[in-house]
Amino acid sequence: MKSTLLLSFSDYQPQAKALAMVCGIPHDTIQLHRFPDGESQLTLPVNLAETVIVCRSLDEPNNKLVELMLTARSLRQHGVKRIILVAPYLCYMRQDKAFHPGEVVSQTIVGHFLADLFDAVITVDSHLHRISKLSEAIPLEYAINLTATQPMADFIEAHFTNPLLLGPDGESEQWVKEIATHFGFDYAVAHKQRLGDHNVVVTLPENDYARRNIIIVDDVASTGKTLLEAAKQLTPYQPASVSVLVSHALFIDDAIEQLTNAGVKHIYSCDSIPHQTNSVSLANILAKALQDVLQQ
Ligand SMILES: O=P(O)(O)OC[C@H]1O[C@H](OP(=O)(O)OP(=O)(O)O)[C@H](O)[C@@H]1O
Questions:
Q1: Which ligand 1 atom is nearest residue 127's CA?
Q2: Where, residue-wise, is CATH 3.40.50.2020 in the chain?
Q3: Which of 3, 161, 229, 240 has the greatest number of beta carbons closer than 10 A?
Q4: For 149-271, CATH number?
């Protein structure tokens, strides 16, 4: 048995291979076949290792969670001692509270499900708004929530001159402030009221937005409505440009088209979810965290 092996599915292979290369770990592929009835058939490599890292982002989560369970249980049956999940985008972290009687708190249920399968979980900019640590949702010693603020700051520094960062809601301040601090960028944070899945109201703080290159920064773009409403509020101030940068690019349905139609000039994202807007690689921050865990 080799000592360490990184496995990925075809949906995240370039990013997983890049991570394996930075870490100097061999990479192999889990073959996936979906039967006509929707069941998944998985085939693991024949040669495994004592420690196996499974690298898969958990957008479109429902099939992927079942496939992770099949993968992890099968790896254990084959004698793998340590199984680490690297999920740059972690699903179900937004349903963290029962807002109405009977509502299921998915965050902790999915968290315990992953803790039963894996020995460590590494993710990036997880949506932890009502808990302070990922280990409160995933009860593991190594439940690590990284932040992409450093590579995002480096990207902005390389592509913009004197930008103004805008967080579209109070929760985004943690990321916007940290990115701004790296290079002394100006920043502001808006207020958001969520009225429904596709309906938010964004109120901008007082600021001189005219003739500025503004970058709206957030953790995740799902319907894109949060970014869209922030961009629309900026238009009357006649900024030089409005761009967006997010950690996780879900961009459901026509989100990109709506942002473009609203005058958003550039749409950038980290590569936690494969998307046409991917501009910022997470390989280096994931590799550092993974190497730290492997040394334990
Ligand atoms: O692209 P969208 O569909 O607008 O979704 C993305 C937004 O949703 C999340 O916050 P949310 O509104 O859930 O607020 P919360 O911080 O209160 O959970 C997230 O932080 C984004 O701001």
A1: 20
A2: 2-147+281-294, 149-271
A3: 229
A4: 3.40.50.2020
